[in-house]
């Protein structure tokens, strides 16, 4: 992990939070540089939401400190609030208000000037493909559109730090791409973005990733270097019956991990050149002769599984 | 800060307006309850079904029966011939009161001796029974007094004249009208308390449930701005409640309103602050609307019972009397009844007004402090 330079926008040290007997977050250190898009990934219950809420100042940590653009969030959450925007996993919308009214409400809470508000909501709604629904009641939107409206509301004021908890869950791919466009635009203005995501393609877009497991950060680096850090190499086994191939390969010598990917099985092995012929032979021995085995670059999902052990993400 | 408060208020009223049933839910139950209280909640008992067994068959016994009928309190539903029939009428619920005039009634009455008259009352509803029994003893006493004065036996026809003489009832029994005067002002306080506490608690808990509360809390809004924005609408609704029931009580039930509307406004405002504080406090104790609802039920009932609305505080055990001291409804009822019926001003009512003010500030402070904590 690179040493954070002077431009640290979000700094957390020794964060701990328990809920009764559950240790949701056990001693986390984070240093997010200004203008970074920092991703939190981890299985359900890993503590992503708990970390976000503490950073946003709505949940008090049991121990540890948080500094956001130099403001001590734990000691003075009120001073941190104008600096940040936090989009919870489930954004609270007023279902009896229209799309435009919800936006107006949040814009006013954050003291966005009227002129800026108009342009910005126009831009955001256009990106979300929601301009025709301005007068629709929020309660009558589809699930994905509600999520998008939440995102629009969270982005309506321009914060210094943006905390997004699984912002695009349930959002269609086209809108997701548009939103990433907006996020990149914000980054250019020096906004620091910290998001959690269950989508591996989104994780890949982050400048750095923290792999979270059971309330602790296991690995933290750029996606590229995380891939390099993955022990072993990856072989793609493509056959007609990937399921059978998965069963056949399981337990073979040198196999470190398996990931069933629909039409293929990603097999992580200790040594690609040595194991590829071995696997081919093993598959043929089990009656799978058409197997096509090629070395591939690992995706972040493979890294995720390799580094966090078994159990699938998302 | 005014922008944030303003937008909170706009939001609240928009939500209220969008809610098609809001007006219905706010007004109809209120009016129904006023009507129910106005008509049903009374200490007076009329038209008690009565069975009569006259074993004396004298003019005096017949006169006594017509005394009962003439008051309008008793309806003779059955003339029994035997004691068995009387028992049957009571057992089957056909009659609530049985009047049995034994043989020798007229004779003994004429001699100035204790006349054998037996009155039985179905005690299942002890309230009605007691009140009916009260009437019976009054009517009999009246009858006896007349009989003595007229030196029984009377000439024929005099019985009717005797019955026409109005009963000299003690004031306790003359509350046919006053009951309503007593109840309607109380209804204002009780209904407003129930409505305002539950509306406030549910509204805040709903924001917590939906997640908008967390959203608002990460914005630069201050807790007191949020609380003010959240409670001000219910304060206005509460005042509208008070006005509505007052107007209804005065126009429909003809309850006199002799006091000053300003004193009423002052008292109502102080009471509403306390009620809002209570609702907020409740919202910090509940995670879900269901919990808030249950808590509300749990809380409002004692407030009602320990308010002096129907049960005299002086008759309660000492411990419960202490509890009434922290009950804003208790003070509000004093103010309401005084303003409605006595027309006294702040010079007399300052103690309950002050008490409500102190309770209101206390409850509100407590709830704001708890509110901060409950956000975690
Ligand atoms: N308010 C709470 N009360 C009690 N336990 C909680 C609370 N919030 C979180 N937890 C517990 O803390 C742990 C971490 O939860 P958290 O919501 O942070 O996980 P997450 O990584 O966001 O999961 P997901 O991907 O499902 O959103 C879980 O075991 C959860 O049950
Ligand atoms: Mg979460």
Key attributes of the depicted protein:
heterodimer, A: about 325 residues, alpha/beta, Rossmann fold, 6-stranded mixed β-sheet, 4-stranded antiparallel β-sheet, disordered N terminus, B: alpha/beta, 2 domains, 15 helices, elongated, binds adenosine-5'-triphosphate, binds magnesium ion
Write structural notes for this entry:
The complex is a heterodimer of chains A (314) and B (376). Helix content of chain A is 35%, strand content 27%. Chain A is of the alpha/beta class. The longest helix of chain A has 16 residues, at 173-188. Mean pLDDT of chain A is 86; it is low at 1-5 and 310-314. Chain B contains 15 helices and 4 strands. The complex binds adenosine-5'-triphosphate and magnesium ion. The site of adenosine-5'-triphosphate has 12 residues of chain A, from β2 and α1. Residues 19, 22, 24, 42, 44-50, 89 of chain A line the site of adenosine-5'-triphosphate.
Helices and strands in order:
The complex is a heterodimer of chains A (314) and B (376).
Chain A: E1 8-19, E2 22-33, E3 37-41, H1 48-56, E4 63-68, E5 71-72, H2 77-80, E6 84-87, H3 99-109, H4 114-127, H5 143-155, E7 161-165, H6 173-188, E8 192-196, H7 200-205, E9 208-213, E10 216-221, H8 223-229, E11 233-238, H9 242-249, E12 255-260, E13 264-269, H10 272-285, E14 292-296, H11 300-308
Parallel strand pairs in A: 3-8, 3-9, 6-7, 7-8
Antiparallel strand pairs in A: 1-2, 1-4, 4-5, 9-10, 11-13, 11-14, 12-13
Chain B: H1 2-18, H2 22-40, E1 48-54, H3 59-70, E2 74-80, H4 83-91, E3 97-101, H5 105-110, E4 117-121, H6 126-150, H7 158-164, H8 178-210, H9 212-217, H10 223-252, H11 261-285, H12 289-305, H13 318-324, H14 328-342, H15 346-373
Parallel strand pairs in B: 1-2, 1-3
Antiparallel strand pairs in B: 3-4
Helix pairs in contact in B: 1-10, 2-8, 2-10, 3-7, 8-10, 8-11, 8-12, 8-14, 10-11, 11-12, 11-14, 11-15, 14-15
């Amino acid at each position: 992990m690179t040493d954070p330079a002077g431009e640290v926008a979000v700094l957390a040290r020794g964060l701990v939070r328990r809920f009764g007997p559950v240790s949701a977050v056990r001693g986390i250190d984070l240093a997010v540089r200004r203008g970074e898009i920092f991703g939190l990934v981890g299985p359900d219950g890993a503590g992503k939401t708990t970390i976000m809420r503490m950073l946003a100042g709505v949940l008090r940590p049991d121990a540890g400190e948080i500094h956001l653009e130099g403001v001590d969030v734990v000691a003075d959450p009120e001073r941190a609030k104008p600096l940040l925007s936090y989009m919870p996993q489930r954004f609270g919308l007023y279902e009896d208000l229209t799309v435009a009214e919800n936006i107006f409400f949040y814009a006013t809470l954050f003291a966005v000037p009227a002129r800026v508000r108009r342009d910005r909501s126009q831009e955001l709604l256009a990106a979300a493909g929601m301009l025709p629904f301005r007068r629709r009641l929020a309660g009558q939107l589809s699930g994905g559109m509600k999520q998008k409206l939440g995102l629009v509301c969270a982005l309506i004021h321009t914060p210094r730090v943006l905390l997004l908890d699984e912002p695009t869950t349930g959002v269609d791919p086209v809108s997701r791409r548009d939103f990433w466009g907006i996020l990149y635009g914000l980054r250019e203005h020096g906004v620091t973005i910290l998001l959690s995501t269950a989508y591996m393609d989104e994780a890949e877009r982050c400048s750095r990733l923290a792999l979270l497991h059971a309330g602790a950060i296991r690995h933290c680096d750029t996606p590229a270097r995380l891939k390099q850090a993955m022990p072993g190499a990856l072989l793609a086994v493509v056959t007609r019956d990937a399921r059978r191939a998965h069963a056949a390969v399981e337990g073979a010598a040198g196999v470190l991990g398996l990931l069933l990917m629909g039409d293929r099985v990603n097999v992580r092995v200790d040594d690609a050149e040595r194991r590829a012929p071995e696997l081919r032979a093993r598959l043929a021995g089990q009656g799978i002769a058409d197997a096509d085995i090629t070395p591939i670059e690992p995706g972040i999902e493979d890294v995720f599984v390799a580094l966090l052990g078994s159990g699938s993400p998302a | 800060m005014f922008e944030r408060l303003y937008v909170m208020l706009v939001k609240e009223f928009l939500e209220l307006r969008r809610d098609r049933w809001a007006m219905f839910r706010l007004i109809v139950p209120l009016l129904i309850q006023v009507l129910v209280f106005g008509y049903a909640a009374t200490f007076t008992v009329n038209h008690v079904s009565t069975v009569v067994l006259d074993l004396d068959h004298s003019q005096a016994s017949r006169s006594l029966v017509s005394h009962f009928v003439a008051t309008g309190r008793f309806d003779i539903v059955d003339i029994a011939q035997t004691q068995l029939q009387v028992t049957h009428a009571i057992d089957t619920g056909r009659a609530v009161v049985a009047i049995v005039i034994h043989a020798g009634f007229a004779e003994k009455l004429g001699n100035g001796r204790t006349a054998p008259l037996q009155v039985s009352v179905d005690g299942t509803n002890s309230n009605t029974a007691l009140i009916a029994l009260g009437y019976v003893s009054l009517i009999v006493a009246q009858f006896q007094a007349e009989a003595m004065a007229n030196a029984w036996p009377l000439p024929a026809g005099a019985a009717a004249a005797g019955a026409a003489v109005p009963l000299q009832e003690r004031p306790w029994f003359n509350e046919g009208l006053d009951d309503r005067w007593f109840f309607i002002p109380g209804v204002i306080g009780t209904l407003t308390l129930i409505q305002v506490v539950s509306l406030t608690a549910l509204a805040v808990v709903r924001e917590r449930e939906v997640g908008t509360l967390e959203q608002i809390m990460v914005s630069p809004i201050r807790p007191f701005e949020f609380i003010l924005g959240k409670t001000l609408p219910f304060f206005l609704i509460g005042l509208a409640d008070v006005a509505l029931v007052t107007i209804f009580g005065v126009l429909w039930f003809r309850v006199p309103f002799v006091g000053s509307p300003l004193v009423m406004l002052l008292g109502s405002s102080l009471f509403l602050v306390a009620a809002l504080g209570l609702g907020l406090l409740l919202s910090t104790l509940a995670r879900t609307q269901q919990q808030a609802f249950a808590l509300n039920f749990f809380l409002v009932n004692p407030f009602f019972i320990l308010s002096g609305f129907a049960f005299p505080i002086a008759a309660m055990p000492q411990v419960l009397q202490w509890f009434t001291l922290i009950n804003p409804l208790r003070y509000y009822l004093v103010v309401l009844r005084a303003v409605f019926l006595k027309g006294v001003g702040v010079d007399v009512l300052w103690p309950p007004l002050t008490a409500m003010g102190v309770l209101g500030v206390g409850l509100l402070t407590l709830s704001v402090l708890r509110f901060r904590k409950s956000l975690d």
